[in-house]
What does this fold into?
Amino acid sequence: MARIIVFDVNETLLDLAALDPFFATHFGDTGKRREWFGQMLQSAMVATITDNYHNFGELAIGALEMMAMRYGMALTEADRDVVRQGMRTLPAHADVRPNLERLRAAGLRLASLTNSTMAVAEAQLTNAGIRDLFTDVLSADTVQRLKPAREAYQMAADALGVPLAGYRLVAAHSWDVAGALRAGCAAAFISRPGQVLDPLALMPDISGATLTEVTDQILRIDTGA
It folds into this structure.
């Protein structure tokens, strides 16, 4: 039974759709935002696997540069700044704060674990109005091994003072859930729009379409409520 619930941040808690107007203006299609984020994740995994570390912010801009090259567009420094600042000011999904409050009220300790740098993570949670609900803000950047590398989850366990099995990772990405489960954590999956579990990976014992559904299950399994 996990008594610490650790949340991924981007897409899981925060809504990247806030960046859609930028991609609609510059690439003519709001769907290009998903392509950009997917490219960023691919670049992050390549950097981690090949031991060529770059922080998540650098990867975000690198992915944007790749998108611009792919579609024959030019980027200005102002364009890059829009994305950098946009990532720091993403709003929380509507179901986030009320359910984090439910988990806190049930006596569960809440932490976040993100691939973003610590400075960006603190800014994101503060700007989204949910920083007060977390006792710990953790970044894989501190060990320069991005999720789903095992070292990121181990770092979180060490920082929280528990074994890997002592916390549950909640994420909207199948690769993050798979990484946590392989490392030895419990996990829960939120199927945010467009997100599905990988049928070839380990399956979490909790999954739901919304954070409300996931919270209901966490309260039943991790608190006995």
Q: What stands out?
A: The mean pLDDT is 96. Residues 72 and 116 are 28 Å apart (CA to CA). The two ends are 12 Å apart (CA to CA). Residues 4-15+91-222 form a domain with the Rossmann fold fold (CATH 3.40.50.1000).
